[in-house]
Amino acid sequence: MYDVIGIGVPVTDIFIVNANSAHFDIQDPDFRRSYIAFATGSKSQVRMKVRTGGSSANTCAALAKLNYRVGYFGLLGTGHYSELLARDLMERNVDVTHILRLPSFEPGISMVISSPEGNRDRAILTDYGTGTHLNEEHFRHFMGFLTDSRWLDITSLKPKAGRSLLDFLKQIREREDRPKVFFSPSKSMLGPALEVVRDLLPYVDVFTANDEELELLTDRKRIQDSLKQLSDMGVNEAFVTRGGDGIMHMRDQEVHTIGAFPVEPEEIVNTTGAGDTVAAFFLDGLIRDLDVPTILKRAAAAGSMKITHEEIGAKEGVPTAEELDAFLEQNGDQVEVRSFQL
């Protein structure tokens, strides 16, 4: 049996580094939004770095690094980038034997464009490629594989694939041996597939999102109101990442919060994939049945270590269990976990 099987869209990340771009803020009526811009007609010399990504693929790679048995389910094509993605997961000890190949199709590609200040401020452009073709036949064909796991880690899917996922989760709902579902949709799913996400929530055991995604889902600005709305939508347990404001966790109306470990702005160099790293340590704590304060402290520490790692890439900078323990031994008293009732 697997500890975790990931379901998602593996993508090739192409990082555009040192772009000759402008970085500026515009004050909208409710908040300040930051922009990266290029002059019309300009031609800039840049450095590009090719890495592998995809939210669930990143989380699965992090869990494999923690010595869990991890598998992955998704679609790839047959070209160079597809081979790169499959080989990278395999080399990171993720089982890729249940990734389907679609001839003549290309996998997803993301362009990660950094601001002049570095990778801590960036914009991401994504083409989901083969990920748009996942359907109910694929879920039905691999039913045995997908139910042979303690947890399913599910990330953003396109609307049609989301409906196929919903049908699959309905089919396995009453099975005593069904895997638990950890669901983390991104903004790219909360736009075109918002209603699908809401329909999925009653079939999810643990939900996770950042605070902006939670606002999109619940249409509530105050995070306490968002958590109440999330509970009304059928979610019993949720993690909410809040960047520099830390992490919140809700279970049965009880909320725990933790601040972020102190990091200077100039130390932040590798934010891509940070949320996926944090999600891996949420799952690590859930699998090990750790108490909530311990899960939050370990996940916050992993996120801090990830964003200060110098090498670019969504899968780079994930700490080992030993590295995390050493970090907490030295810095664990810098954050505090608090709790309150909704």
The stretches of 5 or more residues where confidence is low (pLDDT under 50) are: none
Distance between the termini: 37 Å
What percent strand?
25-35%
Approximately how much helix is present in the residues?
A: 25-40%
Strand order of the largest sheet: 8-6-1-12-13-14-15-16-17-18
Arithmetic mean of pLDDT = 91
Folded structure, characterized:
- The protein has 342 residues and is of the alpha/beta class.
- It has a single domain (2-10, 54-107, 128-341), classed as 3-Layer(aba) Sandwich (UDP-N-acetylmuramoyl-L-alanine:D-glutamate ligase), CATH 3.40.1190.20.
- It has helices at 55-65, 80-91, 136-141, 143-146, 159-172, 187-190, 194-200, 211-218, 223-232, 274-287, 292-307, 321-331, and strands spanning 2-7, 11-17, 22-27, 32-37, 47-53, 70-73, 75-76, 94-95, 100-101, 108-115, 118-127, 149-154, 180-183, 206-210, 237-241, 247-251, 254-258, 337-341.
- The strands form four sheets. It has a ten-stranded mixed β-sheet with strand order 8-6-1-12-13-14-15-16-17-18. It has a four-stranded mixed β-sheet with strand order 5-2-10-11.
- Helix 5 packs parallel to helix 7, helix 10 (274-287) runs antiparallel to helix 11 (292-307) and helix 11 (292-307) packs across helix 12 (321-331).
- The longest helix has 16 residues, at 292-307.
- It is globular and about 55 Å long.
